[in-house]
Amino acid sequence: MSAGKAAWDRFTKWRSTPIAVSLQIVLLVFLGALFIQRQGWLQFLEFRAYDIFIRHQPKAATSDPIVLIEMTEEDIHDPQLDWPIPDTALAELFRKLEAHQPAVIGFDIWRDLPVPKNGSGIRELNEVLLAHTNILAIFTTDTGTDIGAPAVLKTNTDRIAFNDNFLIDFEVDRTIPKVRRSALFSTNSDAFPFAVATYYLKGKGIAPAPDPDNESGFILGKARIRDLGPNDGPYVGAASDQFFQILLDFKCPEDFTRYSFVDVLTPGKIPEGKLKDKILIVGTNTKSVFDERVTPLHRDHRGMEVQAMVVNQLLRMALDGEKPIRTLRDWQEDAWMLLWALVGGAVGYRVRSPWRFGPESMGCLVALGGIVWFAFSQGWWLPLAAPAVAYVPAALLVTSYHAYQQRSMRSVLMKLYSRHVSKEIAESIWENRESFLQGQRPLAQKLVVTVLFTDLKGFSTISERMEPARLYEWLNGYLGAMAQVIQEHGGVLKQFTGDGILALFGVPVPHTTTEEQAKDATAAVRCALALGRRLVELRRDWQAAGLPPVSMRAGLYTGEVAAGSVGSDDRFEYAVIGDVVNTASRLESYDKTLADPDLLPNRCRILIGAPTHDLLGGKFESREIGLLEVKGKANKVPVFQILDETVAASSTEPESASGVISGIEPSDRIGSSVS
């Protein structure tokens, strides 16, 4: 039970961390984007991208073996033709085409009624249709139009096919619906391009066969073709129970070999062998006879051209093994969206600068577009709008959250440190804030610090003799000058205790290496020496103003403390707890008769403990002067007096490096050493 509670407590603590909150934001954004995608609200954006990819993709090498036999406006106005084309002229057209020995003729013109209606030429046309079994005719499945196949072929289901096979995305495009997919067959019959392609492939020994790995698909030559699912790619509810459908790739070149009806009927107009073993699509290419389709390529694509493109796609798949456009499964698309939501969250978490956020986000979105485009060139249609919709709000919200966190954290830091540290230390604190801040409060942690404690000699006597107003003016001038010196040496001014000062070196950013801790100790000792030099300058000013001169005692000790914040959320302060602070205070007050600061050149007696002394590395002249009994420690602590910085390491003025020791009688010295 306790283990479970401990695990829950750890989880509760973790979920409030910045990275956990960022992950929660990412998850919520992902779920929102998933909902939007599931409603189909992003389809129009996905298809805009699809259309662009279609227009800029590489084309197939050739449209061969497809040849278009077109009725043009000139054909309609030709004396020997008319519209609708008479049965006798149509019969003659088929005879002329059959003379060229094509593999198959796909007749993409509705012919459910005789022309003329009196039926004077229908017998001749029927004879041609019955004599040539490679002619395939069309009808419609739309009950609204219900245009049938030629009467003579109605019972021959292998030679008739429906040509209303283009499935138009009305709900996606709304204003200008486009053709992007085609039915291949229904439960009762084949679609026109599928019938034409399979008839041609049959002559090459290729026929559709069941796919043992996919009961809803089939094998055609080298291709495995499966039915377009209801939510394949960015589609939402695109499936049709009536039709087996595929996505169109529009890779077929548009420079088909073309001949007009008049060309066919004119002897010698078509070179010998030009149509042999070809697939002939017979249809109309006129403005007066409406047969247009809007596709990603054109707004006025001729129906026969789009049918020819579907035939070309089927042939490339069956003969060359070219794969159909593939899409991810639903769970893979969800994972794809989640990935980009995570990328957005990572960018928002890592990039804190608004100047970097814009370019990096733009770079990520460009990368997304590049990946989707590359995948499309390899035959994969990946969602583009959905991951972008997941990325953008995730990046923005995580960035906004961290911006808010930064403002709050900066407010906390400034509240804790702004008056007590230098600008450089403040910047270091801000850059390393995550190492010692948790939420809105400093993280409780153990640190190795050097504590500097100072006090004025005889302040109580002086304060009794001065007027309160003048006393506070004098004291504020002293404390302000000392605070500036501490900040210049990288210390954190913890507090003023009347005339006393408590400063810390090594907080709040953890310094874990001995080298870092040695730098803190060195900075603290140099600061103490600098405080003495500044005090000498102040004494001159005080004497000129008739104010009493004072001297200072300083105690320094290095050790481990517990650091953190104490107080309520509205009123709290940074605090350090440990006997290091007490020891530094006791070093300051150690044997006040020893080494009278009034007799020292810099008017400041500096005593340090052995741990601090060991970290100085010979940078300072010092003497061991006694032992300090510390509460809670079995052994007494050796006490050293800092005299000055050694000549080799000194950065002070020459007169401060004299190394003269005053006010210490021989009887006071237990032993001496130079560290």
The portion of residues forming beta strands comes to 15-25%
What is the multimeric organization of the chains shown? Answer: single chain
Question: How far apart are the termini?
Answer: 56 Å
Largest sheet: 8 strands, mixed
Number of helices: 19
Low-confidence stretches: 651-675
Protein described:
- With 675 residues, this protein is α/β, with parallel strands linked by helices.
- The strands form 7 sheets. Strands 19, 20, 21, 22, 23, 24, 25 and 26 form an 8-stranded mixed beta sheet that branches. Strands 4-3-2-12-1-11 form a 6-stranded parallel beta sheet.
- β17 and β18 (441-442) form a beta hairpin.
- α5 (87-99) runs parallel beside α6 and α11 (330-350) packs antiparallel against α12 (354-377).
- The model is unreliable at 651-675 (pLDDT under 50).
Features:
675 residues; eight-stranded mixed beta sheet; six-stranded parallel beta sheet; 19 helices
Describe how the helices and strands are arranged.
Elements: H1 2-14, H2 18-38, H3 43-56, E1 66-71, H4 73-76, H5 87-99, E2 104-107, H6 122-131, E3 135-139, E4 160-162, E5 166-168, H7 170-173, E6 179-186, H8 192-202, E7 209-211, E8 214-220, E9 223-226, E10 243-247, E11 257-260, H9 261-265, E12 279-284, E13 292-293, E14 301-302, H10 303-320, E15 326-327, H11 330-350, H12 354-377, E16 380-381, H13 385-417, H14 423-431, E17 437-438, E18 441-442, E19 445-456, H15 459-465, H16 468-488, E20 492-497, E21 500-505, H17 514-544, E22 552-567, E23 572-577, H18 579-588, E24 604-609, H19 610-615, E25 620-628, E26 637-645
Parallel strand pairs: 1-11, 1-12, 2-3, 2-12, 3-4, 15-16, 22-24
Antiparallel strand pairs: 5-6, 6-10, 7-8, 8-9, 13-14, 17-18, 19-21, 19-22, 20-21, 22-23, 24-26, 25-26
